[in-house]
Amino acid sequence: xxxxxxxxxxxxxxxxxxQSCFGSDAPPISDKTKTCLSCHNTIHPGIVEDWQTSRHSxxxxxxxxxxxxxxxxxxxxxxxxxxxxxxVGCAECHTLSPKTHKDSFSHAGFQVHTVVTPKDCAxxxxxETEQYARNIMSFARKNLNQNPVYQDLQRTIHGTxxxxxxxxxxxxxxxxxxAESCYYCxxxxxxxxxxxxxxxxxxxxxxxxxxxxxxxxxxxxxxDKSKGSCTACHTRHAFSIAEARKPYTCKECHIGPDVxxxxxxxxxxxxxxxxxxxxxxxxxxxxxxxxxxxxxxTCAVCHMSLTVDKNGQVIAKRSHNMxxxxxxxxxxxxxxxxxxxEPDTTKLKNSAGLNLxxxxxxxxxxxxxxxPTQQKTRKNRMQAVCKACHGSSWVNNHWQRLQNTIxxxxxxxxxxxxxxxxIWEKGLAQKKSLFDEAIEKKWSNIWLINxxxxxxxxxxxxxxDYGVFAQGRFALSKKIKEMEDWFLIHRKLxx
Amino acid sequence: xxxxxxxxxxxxxxxxxxQSCFGSDAPPISDKTKTCLSCHNTIHPGIVEDWQTSRHSxxxxxxxxxxxxxxxxxxxxxxxxxxxxxxVGCAECHTLSPKTHKDSFSHAGFQVHTVVTPKDCAxxxxxETEQYARNIMSFARKNLNQNPVYQDLQRTIHGTxxxxxxxxxxxxxxxxxxAESCYYCxxxxxxxxxxxxxxxxxxxxxxxxxxxxxxxxxxxxxxDKSKGSCTACHTRHAFSIAEARKPYTCKECHIGPDVxxxxxxxxxxxxxxxxxxxxxxxxxxxxxxxxxxxxxxTCAVCHMSLTVDKNGQVIAKRSHNMxxxxxxxxxxxxxxxxxxxEPDTTKLKNSAGLNLxxxxxxxxxxxxxxxPTQQKTRKNRMQAVCKACHGSSWVNNHWQRLQNTIxxxxxxxxxxxxxxxxIWEKGLAQKKSLFDEAIEKKWSNIWLINxxxxxxxxxxxxxxDYGVFAQGRFALSKKIKEMEDWFLIHRKLxx
Amino acid sequence: xxxxxxxxxxxxxxxxxxQSCFGSDAPPISDKTKTCLSCHNTIHPGIVEDWQTSRHSxxxxxxxxxxxxxxxxxxxxxxxxxxxxxxVGCAECHTLSPKTHKDSFSHAGFQVHTVVTPKDCAxxxxxETEQYARNIMSFARKNLNQNPVYQDLQRTIHGTxxxxxxxxxxxxxxxxxxAESCYYCxxxxxxxxxxxxxxxxxxxxxxxxxxxxxxxxxxxxxxDKSKGSCTACHTRHAFSIAEARKPYTCKECHIGPDVxxxxxxxxxxxxxxxxxxxxxxxxxxxxxxxxxxxxxxTCAVCHMSLTVDKNGQVIAKRSHNMxxxxxxxxxxxxxxxxxxxEPDTTKLKNSAGLNLxxxxxxxxxxxxxxxPTQQKTRKNRMQAVCKACHGSSWVNNHWQRLQNTIxxxxxxxxxxxxxxxxIWEKGLAQKKSLFDEAIEKKWSNIWLINxxxxxxxxxxxxxxDYGVFAQGRFALSKKIKEMEDWFLIHRKLxx
Lengths: 495, 495, 495
Hints:
homotrimer; mainly alpha
């Protein structure tokens, strides 16, 4: 009998312990948010439940501010009093600064906006927002949309096919197509074009019509004129750091074959270790301890995260501007080249007047790209991450190979471009558009896909099967010979 | 000392608790199944162990029938008494209705059949079997095998290459090749062709020879004339609902690039969330609660599963006929078109007499496809799933883009088909087979791979990198220009 | 109060229990290793932490030797006394036999070498090292590097593109390129070329310069002349059997499309089960019990691991020579053929004097390949694994289809090769190099990628969508017709 009571009391003790750790003093939800939840709980259970798994629903800004040192997850110090002591719920974000939000509308007694923007998030996460505004990714839309060279490239890829038996052409794509092709990742422009009344389970209600919605592109232009979408990586409504640190997030846009980061990672030694051990790693801890929280890098480790050793010494500082660790831009353009110094690349212009960072022969332009000193600074920041697990000779030799691959792949593209130039000279293709004929598309394939693949494999995996056979070296060498063959055929035919 | 005893007794108490929860009253295994296990335990340990992880080995039909409401996993009410109170073991399935099974054979004193079919499963899961029989997937074999257009397409893909220096041709593939190419997924026909005596560890034994075995294709034609294979998704011998709900199951057949569902999913926002959080989700619960059991859809959530909100309100009803939520058929055919109204598509015929759901210009045929009202009904069923996590404007705009992509991709295919028609007209390719020449294969590639990729990316991911560069828009626009280039070369050469 | 004390003492008891299981009597770390750790703990926290997760850091060779029977993980009996009773730490491996290591250098008072080789590992794992030395993988570098046919193939894939407007050619690649393309997997040769003084946080230090470093290729030639790198699969510094048993490890080199093992596996039924259930399997147990530790094979299960049934009966013996279970070589060469009998394939020569295992018409050469008896022995070893979960008719029929696919795919390649021969004969391509022209690259693509894909899908998945559309049958049939089309064009142009 005594045993029974002892056991009973012991279980009771455990329960109390649990209560005191997890159960009591849950931070308060604001009244406004409670109102939101009262309906949306039922209407959008998925969103609400997701939010309930978030730190936003379990912490107040005040609590987060009290954390000291590297573990702090919040970077603003001047958070309005009325928001400090409630959790970060629906209303806290969706009713913030209604005047700057063109999509703000009257809804159930509040001024609500659909699109929460980096400016909203900056209230608590100012530093991250400022860093991101300097990240080339925040200009992903502008850099694509306002560059005539790229506008032409787009048109010839996702444009509407014109049916004409003598010639197949490409008209500029309509907005629906644009929003789900290039601008899905690069970001749409969100424009409020009017209002619409819709029947709902609560009766008829008015909602804004937002052109370009939905979208979470990294360079989205928001109704409040800010750029970007934090939810591109921190998916609504969990806004999880753990999720953003896993490579699946980056995969959404960096899958390829034009930018095959995820594929190369997943075939690399680092990827092997990640997939084998992911379940024993801690993706939520801040700061993130090398060797204890993880034993091989994910995308975030190398490009973004705050990492420390087990003594708490900083290995790399967090930055939402990936540029701080990138010496070279190895994809998307005809040649690899030193990283642009400003996030707005529409100002870059080569001697032929094209908005490109290099000449057609591969020579980097003089203004607008980082110089060798800056390249070295960035390389050192990146190498600090490598050196937490690799000796110096390992790291240096890896870098030497990457440097060689940049040179060699640029050389191959130069040969292809010279072939292309000879074809243009002979009048067998028209230079009016650089991208709209069969042979021009073969040439584009070489630099937009094959050379990129080779460089990604080199940079992220030290090479391997993927860089050789998965649309890398084998395909590049094949296509360059096919260009030659094509030229031969058409020269003969035009005689 | 007292402490020791207290602890000892406490541990004993825990053990008893465990016993009472998990240990006692295990439902009985039938004597017949015990006989099977006595040998197969040793001969096929993998199968037996797998079965021991299954619900079939832990529950009797009676127990499953007693579950009420949405949690019920069994849909037949008239299960024979002798099967109600034993677990579902080897004998319960493999000795059922021996007379209807042509592969039934005398084995260790029982009439046993190798191939368990949907008719067998229907004994307990009648509703699911009936739904599946209306699913176009159950006709996957017939629709491919009895359609002359597709027979020709097959021949030119997996046919035996005829060696002839002047011309390379394709003879119909042999049965071994057929069984592991198209019919691996579409299903073989299982035919008992005789018996064979084989030495076994138990002495010589006779077994039926089953042509077409092994196969778990979704449209398999079974020895009892039923269609399909439940084990295509509910893998033997665990028959797990959790496994079927994960996207890896669908991936076996929907990987691509002709039907790139898994690839697109894995690069989508939904896929990102799935991979990041899969280990914290509950894949076994019935019904399946949005937000609690999972926070992003898998294939099953959108296409098949019974889902509820946390109040138990039904969001979508379970159906093993995926057609109930599908408005369009976006792959496999030359053009996207309204979904066929009947699972048997061999009756569809266009004005040229071809067994196709559209004319060669893309116009859907008049009979046999669902009408706009039915399309809307199905769209609403699907959108109910979306709306558990997304607002109406999000969902409507997504759909508008998909609709646009169906139109635009069909238009692109039409342009390619017009090029192809012009080539046929000029006699530069022969229309006798639509698929067996180099240029016809380029044209097939456009609709069978590229246009599909674009539509899948649109439907399942809202677009993104994958639809543009992974054999989508870039490849389509390249190939259509290559068709033009080819035509030019051959016109000049034939002058 | 009594409750409090009871609880306190109970928790204390639990703590003691934990201590006695995990905390006390940790095996000693050698003094030498302690010295290493005193600095590298801080300099390379990632490496050190990884090692601390390893069995090497928790066990002494003596402890491992005491394990009896199939659970034993160590195969040498004559381990030096001084190493028997300490854990396997930095110094134990990196200071072993300094005289045989050309990369040995004086470092902090020790003779240390950077590259730990199979010879070092053999001290404890002799049997595994001996088996691996017979594995064709240990000759991966030599077989590629000393075969003139393959040297030419390499040159035309990763060679430096020569810029010349009239002709595009390929110069042999430089060493940096070689190290990150073919030789990343096949292995570099590690050569000590000198010394270099580097500033470190401990002051200036001298290190050897090792050409070819870093590399973990399976056929790496080490400074002590041994071949291979155990860390190719057992990644430093955890050296985990669990990691090596997961398919991600094999994926690093077998991803494709030239050797698409991982891709085919991941789209197979086995892969489906693996991904769905991986978290509930035990990847660390030795021996590995079918049905209990795992319910579907990974790469290791079929090709390498010691597996038993639940009674401890051996299903397959462990071997680090994969050849023991391989009847056919289905990739990398022009035709599938019986596996080479010796790991060194540079001696194989066909009647045309080329270092190939077959004639150009597909006929296997007479010497150097295993005979039908040996093929059968190996097939039986492999089938024993299949039969743990599949009936004999299943297994036999699977094999019959694979056999058919080997025949059919060889036949298709023969047709392509006859086309190619006719092209060579007509002088439309030059046979000086078999691989450097556009049409030769199309022919190479057929056997190096398409036919391989078909055979892998057959062997590992029983076929399926992947073998048909993912660069398999559809691509093969397309490319063979494109060869024919090319021939027609160039014949007409050369008239």
